[in-house]
Write a structure and sequence with these properties.
alpha+beta; three-stranded antiparallel β-sheet; two-stranded antiparallel ribbon; 5 helices; 9 strands
Length: 171
């Protein structure tokens, strides 16, 4: 677009408002980069830190992990990283790190959601970060619930609140 009037035209409607963003790097350089938001879960801490990582578009998963290693506090120098793709609160890449699964064990996805029944409509709202959980053939539902609660480190009263759920499904 060469003229301001072209920028203010949207679907044949002229606007008098122009939104813009101040970039921290030149636009041509930014266009050659891929921007990723990474939610980092430290193995020994409760907090989740969101990092924005910009790498050349031809970068690999290894490049993302190396960049992240330079930004986070490591629990030890040879720590293993696990990188998962999450889209609409579901995990789409299953890594090889799920080890020692027995022939009858199952790896399931777990995600958090709330049901809102306002105005005679049921809305489901996702929240939190999804995760994997191994289910053993001999486990009861009560045992699985205890493991989910322990993994999430949620107090009893919050875990048993109505309206919140933890759904699980096979990958």
């Amino acid at each position: 677009m060469d003229h301001l009037s072209d920028m203010l035209l949207h679907y044949n409607q002229t606007s008098d408002i122009l939104y813009y963003e101040v970039l921290d790097i030149p636009l041509p350089e930014l266009q050659g980069l891929k921007t990723l938001k990474v939610a980092f879960h430290h193995a020994t801490k409760d907090e989740v830190v969101i990092y924005t990582i910009r790498l050349p578009k031809q970068s690999t998963v290894g490049d993302v992990i190396n960049d992240l290693k330079g930004k986070v506090e490591l629990s030890h120098p040879n720590v293993e990283f696990r990188l998962l793709e999450v889209f609409y609160h579901k995990i789409y890449e299953i890594p090889e790190e799920e080890k020692n699964l027995g022939p009858h064990d199952r790896l399931i996805h777990v995600y958090h959601f709330m049901k809102d029944t306002a105005q005679n409509q049921v809305r489901v709202q996702n929240f939190g970060e999804p995760f994997f959980l191994v289910i053993h053939e001999s486990e009861t539902l009560a045992e699985v619930k205890v493991r989910i609660q322990k993994k999430l480190q949620v107090p009893d009263e919050e875990f048993s609140k109505g309206g919140r759920a933890y759904a699980a499904y096979p990958p």
